[in-house]
From TrEMBL:
Family statement drawn from the similarity comment of this UniProt entry: Belongs to the TrhO family.
InterPro entries: Rhodanese-like_dom, Rhodanese-like_dom_sf, TrhO, TRHO_N
A GO MF term: oxidoreductase activity, acting on paired donors, with incorporation or reduction of molecular oxygen
Rhodanese domain segment(s): 122-216
Natural source organism: Roseofilum reptotaenium AO1-A
GO biological process: tRNA modification
Highest classification ranks of the organism: Bacteria, Bacillati, Cyanobacteriota, Cyanophyceae, Desertifilales
Enzymatic reactions: uridine(34) in tRNA + AH2 + O2 = 5-hydroxyuridine(34) in tRNA + A + H2O
Name assigned to this protein: tRNA uridine(34) hydroxylase
Enzyme Commission identifier(s): 1.14.-.-
Length: 297
């Protein structure tokens, strides 16, 4: 039986967010749900996996609160849990931009559906920006999109201030994995004086789900923050693995590199691997192999 992987977020005034942690954790544990749920005063952000009935139970519970009656979510499937455990965490922000005056509840850019996205980004006056981090952009993006080369979302405001100008870039379109980063990114850009700011509704995940491969302008795969690592059109599993040392997505080509050592390092981190860290990684790798051997007995 395949499991349902559900992602959702919702910005709203959530003053009592800390009080939700315990009951949410208990509900998820009771129904065998794994994944991560983030709670903050600005809203909720989650990616979870469980049986069909378990995911439906959680969503019904959330939507029973009047503030979350219109909560939307995206779904895909996985043959097994893509997460090792359940985490329900209290945070300052549900997606960290580090700009406390930016509030998506006050203003955001114009949503563009996956079906209308191709037409928008085909407009030569539109500046297309990938708001994700560099390692995500490297394995796939929309044709012609700018890569801000950020290491974290906190770097995005600096990129906007140094590379974009409301006078020179009157139309800006942005996208991210599930849509949440663009909520804050578009709100930030509107505060900076940009007039026409658009974002892909539902993010890359919704686009890959709804737009046929023949019509798709997406190139490569989409990094996801679970054990599937990456997905492709139709939300099927991609071809990447994850380096356990640095967390960078690695391809079959990376594995063929002399700088790749399974469980130790990859071409993206081998140059920075100290003897001490190599020893730690080797010990961890041996422990994981022993655990797998015991589990398979």
């Amino acid at each position: 039986m395949s499991l349902v992987v559900a992602t959702f977020y919702h910005f709203f005034s959530f003053a009592d967010y800390a009080e939700w942690r315990s009951p949410l954790h208990s509900l998820c544990e009771e129904h065998g749900i794994k994944g991560t749920i983030l709670l903050a005063s600005e809203g909720i952000n989650a990616t979870i996996a469980g049986s069909r009935s378990a995911v439906d139970t959680l969503l019904t519970y959330l939507r029973s609160d009047p503030r979350l009656w219109d909560l939307t979510h995206k779904e895909s499937t996985a043959p097994d849990y893509p997460f090792d455990r359940l985490k329900v965490r209290l945070k300052q922000e549900i997606v960290t931009l580090g700009q406390p005056d930016v509030n998506p509840n006050e203003q955001v850019g114009t949503y563009v559906s996956p079906q209308e996205w191709n037409q928008l980004i085909g407009d030569p006056e539109v500046t297309l920006i990938d708001t994700r981090n560099d390692y995500e952009v490297q394995i796939g993006s929309f044709r012609g999109a700018q890569n801000p080369h950020t290491h974290s979302f906190r770097n995005f405001p600096d990129y906007v201030k140094t590379h974009l100008d409301p006078q020179k870039h009157p139309k800006v379109a942005m996208f991210c994995t599930g849509g949440i980063r663009c909520e804050k990114a578009t709100a930030f850009m509107l505060k900076q004086g940009f007039q026409e700011v658009y974002h892909l509704q539902g993010g890359i995940l919704k686009y890959l789900e709804e737009v046929p491969e023949l019509d798709s302008l997406w190139e490569g795969e989409c990094f996801v923050f679970d054990q599937r690592i990456a997905i492709k059109t139709g939300l099927v599993a991609g071809s990447y693995d994850l380096c356990v040392a640095c967390g960078y997505p690695i391809s079959e080509e990376d594995k063929a590199s002399p700088d790749y050592e399974e469980g130790i390092c990859c071409p993206h981190c081998s140059d920075h691997l100290t003897p001490e860290k190599r020893a730690r990684q080797q010990a961890k790798y041996q422990q994981s192999k022993l655990k797998k051997t015991k589990d398979n007995k």
